[in-house]
Write a structure and sequence with these properties.
It is built from 20 helices and 13 strands. The protein is of the alpha+beta class and about 675 residues long. The chain has four domains: about 220 residues, Up-down Bundle (Rhopdopsin 7-helix transmembrane proteins); about 170 residues, Beta-Lactamase (2-Layer Sandwich), CATH 3.30.450.40; about 70 residues; about 140 residues, Heat Shock Protein 90. Strands 7, 8, 10, 11, 12 and 13 form a six-stranded mixed beta sheet that branches. Strands 2-1-5-4-3 form a five-stranded antiparallel beta sheet, with helices on both faces. Strands 6-9 form a two-stranded antiparallel ribbon. The longest helix has about 60 residues.
Length: about 675
C-alpha cells in the first residue's frame, strides 16, 4: 500500500469535510464562496493520485476508464487553472481590496482560466506545452496573492489581524511550494511520498483557521494546536496503512476507513487536539493562577471597590493588561454605567442602555469579544443580529470606546455588567487561554458582586424596616398634637381681628401635616386595586391640574399619544399620584419656565411606555445613584420621599421606571406600564 495514496486520501477527505462545514456555516460572502471552490479544486487535484492508483492496478472497468479520460482529467485541469484565480479572489476579498481595476483583473483571469481549459480539452498542443502554460499561468497568480497578503501584514497594526494574515502567508507558501515540488520531483522520478498532498491539506487547514478560529493567532498556541492536529492525523493514517498491510485489505478499504476517521475528527477534533497538546506541551498556568489567586484574595474584600481593585491587579499581573474598567448595571436608572475607576467617568465610557448595539450584542451572544475580531465576526459570522445596514454602526460603537477586549458579566442569564480591558503591554494578541482566564475572572467577580449586593440589600431592607417603624411612630406622635395646634389657631383666629400670625401657624401646620402624611404613606404597605386606567385621560387630567397653578404658567407640557386608546392595569389613585409626583419634580426643577414633553406609546411587548422629558438642569452624576434613597433631596425644603414613594407605587402595580439624565441637558423618566388584559 503506497503511503502517498493515503496522504492523498487524507487531503481529499479533509477538503471534502471543509467544503461541507463551510457550506452549512455561511455561503453568502465572497470569502466563503471562493474558499469552497478552492477546496473543491484542491480535492480534485488530490483525488487524481487515488484515481491514478486505481488505473495502475487495473481495478477499473473500460467504461469508467473512458469516463475518466473524457470527463475527469479535463475537469482536473480546469480546476488547476481556476485554483490560482480563486486564491487571488479569496485574498482580495479577505483583506478587503476595493480597487475597481483589481475587479477587472480578476474577471480577465477567470476568462483566461476558462480559455486555457478549453484549449486543453481540444488537445491542440503537446502535453509538455500544456505543462508550461499551466506553470506560467498558475505560479504568477499565487505569487501576486502572497505579495498582497504580505503587504497587508506589514501595514496592519493590530496583532490579531497580523496573525490571520501571517497564517495565510505561511499556508500559501507551504501549499504552493509543496505542490510544485511534488510535480518537479515526480517529473525527475523521485518519490515524494505525497508531500504535495500534505502541503495542500496544510494550506486548506490554515485558511480555515484564519476564517473561523480567529482567536488562535498567538504564535506559540498556533504551533501547539497545529502540531497536535497533524500528529493526530499522522498517527491515524499510519494505523490505516498498517491495517491495510496486515489484513491485506482491498485498495478501497483504507480510503473508506480514512473517511470515517476524518469524520470522527471533524466531530471530536478539538478534544483530540487538546489531549495531544496536553501530552506534548506544559499547560499554561496563567488561568489557574489567576482564578486561585482571585478567590483567595477576594475573601479579604470589604466592599465592591475592593473587588474591582483586586481583580484589576490580578488581571494586570497575570495577563499583562494595560488598562481595565468595570461597567455595571444600575437597577435604579436601568442603564449600564462606569462603576470603576471613577476617574474615567463622563470621559471615555458613556452611559449604555438596551438600545446600544454593545448591550444588544452581549445579550445576544454573551461571550468575550476582542476588538480585532469584531469586524471579522460581524462580517463573516452569518449572524442574524448583524445586517448590512447596522454593520458600520455596530463596529463604530465598539471602536469609539477604544478598548481591546470586552467581557460580559453574566448572572442567571442576565447581563450584570461588562469588563473593558486595554491591549496587552507586550503587544501580543489575546489568545484562547487569555480569553478563558478573562471569562473565569469575570464570572468570579460577578458572583462576589452578587454576594455583596445581597448583603447590602438585606442591610437596606433592615434599615427601611426600622425607618418605617420609626416614621410611623413619629408621624402618629406628631399628628395629634399638630391637629390640636391647628384647631387652636383657628379658634384664636375667629376671636381676633389680626389673623396674620394665626394664618401663618395654620399654613405651617398644613405643610407639616403633608410631611407627616408622606411619612405614614411611606411606612405602610397598601395593596393596590386592579383597575382599568385610560393613560391618555388620566395624564391629561394631571397636566391640566398642574397647569392651573400660576407658578407653572410659563411651562409648556405637550402630550404625544397614539390614536388608539391605551388601557393599563393600575390603581387609578396611585397612578395619579405617580404622574403628579413626576410632573411636580420636573416643573420645580425648571424654576417656572421651560418645556416638559410627555409621550405615550406601545413597546410591542405587551406594555405601555410613558416618557416624561424636561429641558431643565438635569441631575448630577453623584446624585443619580441616591435619588431613590428615602429622605435624600437636593431641593431646599424637600422631604426626599417623592421618588421613593413613586418607585414603590410602580413596583406594587407591576411597573418600573428608569431615569436618563445628563447635567445641563435635562432629564427623562421612562415608565413601563402593564396592559389591561381581560
Amino acid at each position: 500500500m503506497n503511503i502517498k495514496i493515503l496522504f492523498a486520501a487524507f487531503a481529499v477527505a479533509l477538503n471534502l469535510g471543509l467544503i461541507i462545514f463551510v457550506s452549512f456555516r455561511n455561503r453568502r460572502h465572497t470569502v466563503y464562496k471562493t474558499f469552497i471552490l478552492m477546496s473543491f479544486c484542491l480535492l480534485m487535484w488530490n483525488l487524481r493520485v487515488v484515481v491514478s492508483s486505481l488505473i495502475e492496478t487495473k481495478n477499473i472497468s473500460t467504461i469508467y476508464f473512458n469516463i475518466l479520460n473524457q470527463i475527469y482529467y479535463p475537469l482536473v485541469t480546469a480546476c488547476l487553472y481556476l485554483l490560482p484565480v480563486l486564491a487571488l479572489h479569496f485574498t482580495i476579498s479577505f483583506i478587503e481590496i476595493r480597487s475597481g481595476k483589481m475587479k477587472y483583473f480578476i474577471r480577465i483571469c477567470y476568462i483566461l482560466a476558462v480559455l486555457l481549459s478549453l484549449i486543453y480539452i481540444m488537445n491542440i498542443f503537446s502535453s509538455r506545452t500544456y505543462d508550461y502554460m499551466l506553470e506560467f499561468f498558475v505560479l504568477p497568480l499565487f505569487i501576486i496573492s502572497l505579495i498582497f497578503i504580505g503587504r497587508a501584514y506589514f501595514r496592519s497594526t493590530r496583532p490579531l489581524e497580523q496573525g490571520r494574515l501571517g497564517l495565510l502567508f505561511i499556508g500559501g507558501t507551504v501549499g504552493v511550494t509543496g505542490a510544485f515540488a511534488e510535480d518537479i520531483f515526480s517529473a525527475l522520478g523521485i518519490n515524494t511520498f505525497g508531500i504535495g498532498n500534505v502541503a495542500t491539506a496544510f494550506y486548506s487547514s490554515l485558511v480555515a483557521i484564519s476564517i473561523f478560529r480567529h482567536r488562535l493567532f498567538d504564535v506559540n498556541l498556533t504551533i501547539r494546536r497545529l502540531t497536535g492536529f497533524f500528529l493526530t492525523l499522522l498517527i491515524l493514517i499510519l494505523i490505516s496503512y498498517l491495517l491495510s498491510e496486515v489484513f491485506k485489505l482491498s485498495i478501497l478499504a483504507p480510503y473508506v476507513y480514512l473517511f470515517i476517521v476524518v469524520a470522527i475528527i471533524l466531530v471530536f477534533g478539538n478534544r483530540i487536539m487538546l489531549y495531544v497538546e496536553n501530552i506534548l506541551f506544559k499547560k499554561s498556568k496563567s488561568s489557574s493562577q489567576a482564578i486561585t489567586e482571585i478567590n483567595s484574595i477576594l475573601e479579604t474584600a470589604k466592599n465592591t471597590n475592593d473587588i474591582f481593585e483586586i481583580s484589576s491587579k490580578i488581571l494586570k499581573n497575570n495577563l499583562n493588561i494595560s488598562e481595565i474598567a468595570f461597567c455595571l448595571y444600575d437597577s435604579n436608572l436601568q442603564i449600564y454605567r462606569l462603576t470603576w475607576p471613577a476617574g474615567l467617568r463622563n470621559t471615555k465610557i458613556p452611559e449604555l442602555s438596551d438600545s446600544n448595539y454593545l448591550i444588544k450584542w452581549f445579550k445576544y451572544k454573551p461571550k468575550p469579544l476582542i476588538l480585532d475580531e469584531a469586524k471579522h465576526l460581524f462580517k463573516f459570522g452569518n449572524l442574524e443580529m448583524v445586517t448590512e445596514s447596522n454593520f458600520n454602526e455596530m463596529l463604530a460603537e465598539f471602536e469609539t470606546l477604544g478598548y481591546e477586549a470586552y467581557i460580559p458579566m453574566m448572572f442567571e442569564d442576565n447581563l450584570e455588567g461588562l469588563i473593558f480591558t486595554g491591549a496587552k503591554n507586550n503587544g501580543r494578541a489575546f489568545n484562547n487561554a487569555d480569553i478563558h482566564s478573562l471569562e473565569l475572572i469575570a464570572n468570579t467577580c460577578t458572583l462576589w458582586l452578587q454576594r455583596f449586593r445581597m448583603l447590602e440589600k438585606i442591610r437596606h431592607l433592615e434599615q427601611l424596616a426600622a425607618l418605617g417603624e420609626m416614621s410611623a411612630y413619629i408621624a402618629h406622635e406628631v399628628k395629634n398634637p399638630l391637629a390640636i395646634i391647628r384647631s387652636s389657631a383657628q379658634l384664636i383666629n375667629s376671636n381676633t381681628q389680626d389673623s396674620k400670625f394665626t394664618n401663618l401657624i395654620i399654613d405651617e401646620c398644613d405643610k407639616l401635616n403633608r410631611v407627616v402624611n408622606k411619612l405614614l404613606y411611606f411606612s405602610k404597605t397598601s395593596t393596590p386595586l386592579s383597575e382599568k386606567v385610560n393613560v391618555k385621560k388620566e395624564v391629561t387630567a394631571c397636566v391640566k391640574e398642574i397647569s392651573n397653578n400660576l407658578s407653572f404658567k410659563n411651562i409648556e407640557m405637550p402630550i404625544f399619544h397614539p390614536r388608539n386608546i391605551l388601557i393599563i392595569k393600575f390603581d387609578i389613585d396611585q397612578f395619579k399620584q405617580v404622574i403628579t409626583n413626576l410632573l411636580l419634580n420636573a416643573t420645580e426643577a425648571m424654576k417656572g419656565a421651560g418645556k416638559i414633553e410627555i409621550s405615550i406609546s406601545e413597546d410591542g411587548k405587551g406594555r405601555v411606555t410613558l416618557r416624561i422629558k424636561d429641558n431643565g438642569p438635569g441631575i448630577n452624576f453623584e446624585d443619580q445613584t441616591k435619588i431613590f434613597d428615602p429622605f435624600y433631596s437636593t431641593k431646599p425644603g424637600g422631604t426626599g420621599l417623592g421618588l421613593p414613594i413613586t418607585k414603590k407605587l410602580l413596583a406594587l402595580n407591576n411597573s418600573n421606571m428608569r431615569i436618563i439624565s445628563k447635567p445641563g441637558k435635562g432629564c427623562e423618566v421612562i415608565i413601563n406600564l402593564p396592559y389591561w388584559k381581560e
